[in-house]
Predict the structure of SCP-like extracellular.
Amino acid sequence: MVGSKKRITLVASAMALLCATGSGVAASGSSQSISTSGAYPERYSAGSGAADIRLAASVLGTHNNERMRLSLEPLKWNVHLEQEAKQWAEVLSRRGSLQHADRATRNGTGENLWMGTAGNWPVERMVGMFIDEKKHYRHASFPDISRTGSWSDVGHYTQVIWRDTKEVGCAVATARGNDVLVCRYWPAGNIWGQKAY
């Protein structure tokens, strides 16, 4: 039992590390910042229409605790992003694999993905695995932001702490024995040539 639990942890950790933020894909194609005008004009606090208030509060709190540690403005919950994240999480959970939605489908938002064995991971730990990447973070301009030499080793973390990101919406879906977390961020982070904060 201990060996299988350890293997599950290693597989989940590897999957979380392998899926770089979708905003990084967008950033690598352009050295210009992403326009933030008009995409998601309405802002919501956690719980104002959120499908799962506890999930929203936990996810938002975990993000904002790290942002407060760095004296960054806290994120606000956006139910539109939550709904989009839920739709994509359902697709990925049925597939049983992780893949970023294309940039057009995401309306230019950033995206973090996570997958693990269903029912074994509290959402704070799911988001915590994004934040754990800070051990490799190097404060420099994107993409030269990782001590390992690969920005994808810290891409989840930098999206969480990206200064210009103001809103987040996340959802968890379960199928095929896995929980899938999708978080969408507006405006997207990981912009070529810029620092996270």
Observations:
- DSSP finds six helices and four strands in the chain.
- Residues 2-18 form the longest helix (17 residues).
- The chain has a mean pLDDT of 80.
